[in-house]
Amino acid sequence: MLTCAYTLKIVIDHGSYTPVFRQLADILRDRVAELGPGAKLPSETDLMQEFGLARITVRAAMKELRAEGLISTTRRRGSYVRDEERVPMDITGPADVSARMPTPEERAKFNMPEGVPLLIVEHEGGETELLPADRIILKILGRD
């Protein structure tokens, strides 16, 4: 096994065509994958100091990760890797399934973070179900 006696410092390239906040989001996305569900991310201040960036830049990167559903942020507590488990749900009979972004009221009702779509399942007969897409695995059952 090969080991390394030094740590590699990741540097933001201010001369790149990729916006700085996106570069930071890419770095943090890799960290999220390494940390795993429920892990706490560094604070905005820690990230500002580590990368020499302005708070607005760090916030833009974190906003992007929230929009992708990778992290959740609670005021005064910090940002954490999302850890919600997905639940299988069987769909039987004829049904139409579509997706759209939720309204602010729907986001509050289902406790959904930014960037997570809502699944709309319209069953034959008019019954409609709204489901957070980040917590459901739809299983479409075939006809026997």
Q: Short description, anyone?
A:
By secondary structure, the protein is α+β, with helices and mostly antiparallel strands. The protein has 4 helices and 7 strands; from the N terminus they run αααββββαβββ. The longest helix is centred in the N-terminal third of the chain and has 16 residues.
Task: Summarize the structure in words.
This protein has two domains: 20-81, Winged helix-like DNA-binding domain superfamily/Winged helix DNA-binding domain (Arc Repressor Mutant, subunit A); 87-140, no CATH class. Helix content is 31%, strand content 24%. The N and C termini lie far apart (53 Å). The protein has a three-stranded antiparallel sheet with strand order 4-5-6, with no helix packed on it. Strands 1-2 form a two-stranded antiparallel ribbon. It has a two-stranded parallel sheet with strand order 3-7. Strand 5 and strand 6 (128-132) form a beta hairpin. The protein contains four helices and seven strands, in the order αααββββαβββ. Helix 1 (20-35) crosses helix 3. By secondary structure, the protein is of the alpha+beta class. The protein is elongated. 14% of the residues are buried.
